[in-house]
Amino acid sequence: MRKFMLGIRPFLAALSRLSLYIAGTGIVVMTFIVGWQVFARYVLNDSPSWSEPLSLHLMLWFIMLGAAVGVRESVHLGLDIVRYAMPRSIQRLMDLVSLGLVAFFGAAMVYYGVQLSAGTWGATIPVLGWPGGVDFFPLIVGGAMIALFGLERFIDIALDLEPAADTEVLEAA
C-alpha cells in the first residue's frame, strides 16, 4: 500500500494543481462577467440577463474545487487547539476520525449530488438554456475530489507517511 500511495502522489498533486488553476481562472472570469454586468447596467442601461446565473455557476465551481484542494493541502479552516493539547497518539486518532468523516462527507456529496442532478435534469435554467441538473455538477466533482483527497490524507496518516502537501499550492494559498 505504501508503494501504491507514493506512486499515485504525482497524479493527485497534478489533479490538485489543475483544480487550483481552474478555480483561479473561474474567479477571474466571474470577475470580468460581473464587471461587464455593472458596466452594462449603469453605462449602457442594458444589463445582460445571463451574467448573474453564469457568475453563480462559476462560483460554485471555484468554491468546490478550492475546497477540495484545501482538504489535500490541509489549508482549510480548523480549530486545532484541543488537538494540540492531546498526546501524539490521540492527535493521530483525532486526525483519522476527522479525515474519515471528510471522506465520507465527500462521498455523500457525490451521492446526493447525482440524485439532485437527475431529479432536476428535466428543468431548464431559463436564461442559459441548460438542463437544471448541470447546477449540481460542481457538487458532484468537488465531492468526489474531497473524498479522494480526504482518503489520501487518511491513508498517509494511517501508514505514517509524510503529508503530500504541494509546496506550489501552499505558496499560492
UniProtKB/TrEMBL annotation:
Q: Where in the cell is it found?
A: Cell inner membrane
Major localisation: membrane
Q: Which spans are transmembrane here?
A: 20-39, 54-72, 93-114, 134-151
Ordered alphabetically, the record's keywords are: Cell inner membrane, Cell membrane, Membrane, Transmembrane, Transmembrane helix, Transport
Record InterPro entries = DctQ (IPR055348), TRAP_DctQ (IPR007387)
Annotated ranges, domain Tripartite ATP-independent periplasmic transporters DctQ component: 30-157
- Per its UniProt record, what Pfam families does this chain match? DctQ
Query: What kind of membrane protein is this, topologically?
Result: Multi-pass membrane protein
Question: Where along the sequence do coiled-coil regions lie?
Answer: none
Q: Which domain of life is it from?
A: Bacteria
Q: What does this protein do?
A: Part of the tripartite ATP-independent periplasmic (TRAP) transport system.
- What do we know about how this protein assembles, alone or with others? The complex comprises the extracytoplasmic solute receptor protein and the two transmembrane proteins.
Assigned protein family: Belongs to the TRAP transporter small permease family.
The protein's name: TRAP transporter small permease protein
What organism is recorded for this protein?
Rhizobium lemnae
